[in-house]
Amino acid sequence: MKTEEEMNVRGQEIISEAPAAGESATVSLDRRRDVSGNPMCISGKGVTKIFGSGKKENIAVNHVDFDFHEGELVSIVGESGSGKTTLSKMLLGLLPVTEGEIYFRGEKRDISTTRKKKEYWKNIQAIFQDPFSSFNVFNKIDTVLLDCINMTGGKNLPMEKKTEMMTEACSFVNLKFAELTNKYPFELSGGQMQRLMIARVFLLKPKILLADEPTSMIDACSRATILDMLLNLRDEIGMTVIFITHDIGLAYYISDTVYIMEHGRFVEHGSADEVILTPKAEYTKRLISDVPKIHEAWDLSTVE
Amino acid sequence: MKNTLRQVFHSSKFVAGFIIFVGILLLITFYPLFHPGNPLDMIGVGTFAEPGTYVSLYDSVGTDTETLKLPDAADKRLDAVLGKEDRIKMVAWLSAMEVDIEGLDYMDTEALMDLWRANYDDSARPNGMTKAERNYYKRLNESLSSMGAGGQMKVFENDAAGEEQQIATITPEDYVNVKNVANTKTLVLGTDNFGRDVLKEMVSATRTSIMIGLIAGVVATAIGLLLGLLSGYMGGFVDDAIMFITNLFTVVPSFILLILISYSIGQEQRGASVVALVIGLTSWTWTCRSVRSQVISLRNRDHVNLSKLSGHSLARILLTDILPYIASYVVMAFILQVSSGILSEAQLSLLGLGPKTTEVPTLGLMMNWAMLYSAHLNGSWWAYFPVILMITLISFSLNLMNTGLDQVFNPTLR
């Protein structure tokens, strides 16, 4: 086992390492913001999710409280099975909450009927982990983007205007719309698909974007590009981004606030500097020490 | 779509099944055009006429004759007259008279006749032979010798006054050209118990049976697909309710249900389409179950979640985000439903619970008739064997297509 001191030193080292090599070097610390003064966007009190019942009962998310501000980039970090994705599904309204309340812009979120659900979904969008399964393979790219325009009330716009909007969205993520027309999503690479996902969000302009490990299936080079675009998008629309990841190093670079999740509970939260530089919870320290470092033997002694 | 079709037609199994099925479809489309008429017309008065070409004896008499002296005509005539039984009896007589029959082939007419002519004696009394048996041999010998002699035949006709007038003399060397005989009829598969042309009947029956299969398949697939989609996608109470009904239908063997429903409808109301509907209504359960399980694996996919977040309606999500993913599977299920619909009709009809017998023949009804009139006992293979072969071919070709599709689509859900 590493001592506590060693772990803290490791935390400092991660910060000194340069961001992943890639096309873009704009993923840097100066893009962090202080948003603590902004009004509350989405928050939760005692949010719990229990799967099954009786002996098979499995508490995936256990009475968590959180406050996400408007325009904030929050990372929720935890290992597999810690309940990150379950929490994200509850935030999206795809899974019912077993106990507790979620507040949207200060008011209790009400998604009891289909109509209210649809109303809520106008405010929240998601980018999922696997770009290959995020698109309906039977729809062309045009259809995907046109759908977004139609949804945001642009149904009756002339076709030229729509094309212009789609071109703008594509150029925002460094894609050429002219090359994409009449193509299917599966004809693109994983990175391109994930960028198309961002273009989609660009058109929809939601209040909240829930990014569930959007870069974990992407190679390191495209990763920086995607993160850069995500940050650009946040600046452009001013939305709240809830970034779910298992990579604490990545979370440090991009987030304003970090929540650490273990076994369905938030063990620690605070600004990125606070959490990574002066971790209090054992679990956080372990997560930090498990980040591999190049040119050094990878110490796996903390891995259970 | 184009790509998928190309892929499908690269599967040799699918192509083989497809060719057989299209062949059957061409047969049922074009045969009735060349041979019009009601397939249920009873053209024969007797039962089970053997397959072959029938030449009108009446018309042959008046037809111009040619004289042909064929060297083996007499032997052939004997051949045709001498049945297998007669030959065995002749050998039995010869051996009873202790004639040397070593190496004799009883089907060799010439050798047998030589021995017979040399040794038959109507006054002889072989050991252990009854009088009746001796009389049989006497009659046999007489008919054999008259045949060999090749006597003439005289044909008489009753004229207006009721007097018998000789109109023709027929010698063994008179031949008529079949072309010139006014009435001939080729019955490729003979006639059935009611004297109906089996081939014509079977073509019509195949058409009806395929139609029954299609209706049953469409009904079963439509119900199964709708319930499966709803139950799989919505989950919860809807799922429980639908699965409860499905399990009820599954637990009670659907064939029993089929028999009971068919029986209660009554013979008079049971047209072909009613039977098809009943088959469809009792066989949707497994389509429902398998569609449901496919939908459950799809409903939590990210693209479905995204579609939900986009505020799409239930119908739209089912039709655009789920149905296309299981379309290949549904097509395969449909093909199997058609095939099992045809088989179910055959089973029902064989039990006498098929469509009413007066309107259209079906493959099952033809089997039922053949069975009722003991075609399988009296050796009339043509009344049931082609029907069995046709049922086999249809379901073989459909299953082959299904296997081919399976190979193309199965590896993943695409």
Can I get a quick summary?
Helix content of chain A is 39%, strand content 21%. Chain A has helices at residues 4-16, 84-92, 114-121, 131-134, 141-154, 159-172, 177-180, 190-204, 220-237, 248-254, 272-277, 282-289; strands at 40-51, 58-69, 73-77, 99-104, 107-108, 124-127, 208-212, 240-245, 257-262, 265-271. Chain B has 414 residues and is mostly helical.
SSE diagram, text form:
The complex is a heterodimer of chains A (304) and B (414).
Chain A: H1 4-16, E1 40-51, E2 58-69, E3 73-77, H2 84-92, E4 99-104, E5 107-108, H3 114-121, E6 124-127, H4 131-134, H5 141-154, H6 159-172, H7 177-180, H8 190-204, E7 208-212, H9 220-237, E8 240-245, H10 248-254, E9 257-262, E10 265-271, H11 272-277, H12 282-289
Parallel strand pairs in A: 3-8, 3-9, 6-7, 7-8
Antiparallel strand pairs in A: 1-2, 1-4, 4-5, 9-10
Helix pairs in contact in A: 1-12, 5-8, 6-8, 8-9
Chain B: H1 2-9, H2 12-34, E1 52-55, H3 57-62, E2 66-67, H4 73-81, H5 84-96, H6 109-119, H7 131-149, E3 153-158, E4 164-170, E5 174-175, E6 184-187, H8 198-234, H9 236-251, H10 254-265, H11 272-282, H12 285-299, H13 302-309, H14 314-350, H15 363-372, H16 385-409
Antiparallel strand pairs in B: 1-6, 2-5, 3-4
Helix pairs in contact in B: 2-8, 2-16, 5-6, 8-9, 8-11, 8-12, 8-14, 8-15, 9-12, 10-11, 11-14, 12-14, 14-15, 14-16, 15-16
Description:
The complex is a heterodimer of chains A (304) and B (414). With 304 residues, chain A is an alpha/beta fold. Chain A has helices at residues 4-16, 84-92, 114-121, 131-134, 141-154, 159-172, 177-180, 190-204, 220-237, 248-254, 272-277, 282-289, and strands spanning 40-51, 58-69, 73-77, 99-104, 107-108, 124-127, 208-212, 240-245, 257-262, 265-271. In chain A, the strands form 2 sheets. Chain A has a 6-stranded mixed sheet with strand order 6-7-8-3-9-10, sandwiched between helices. In chain A, helix 8 runs parallel beside helix 9. The radius of gyration of chain A is 20 Å and the shape is globular. Chain A starts with a helix and ends in a 15-residue tail after the last helix. Residues 14-25 of chain A have low confidence and may be disordered. Chain B folds into 3 domains: 2-41 and 193-409, MetI-like (MetI-like fold), CATH 1.10.3720.10; 58-68 and 152-187, no CATH class; 73-146, no CATH class. Helices cover 63% and strands 6% of the residues of chain B. Chain B has 414 residues and is mainly alpha-helical. In chain B, a hairpin with a 5-residue loop joins strand 3 (153-158) and strand 4 (164-170). The model of chain B has no long low-confidence stretch (mean pLDDT 86). Chain B contains 16 helices and 6 strands. The radius of gyration of chain B is 32 Å and the shape is elongated. In chain B, the strands form 3 sheets. Chain B has a two-stranded antiparallel sheet. Chain A binds chain B through residues 92, 94, 118, 121-122, 124-126, 128-130, 133-139, 147-148, 151, and chain B through 301-303, 305-311, 320-321, 324-325, 414.
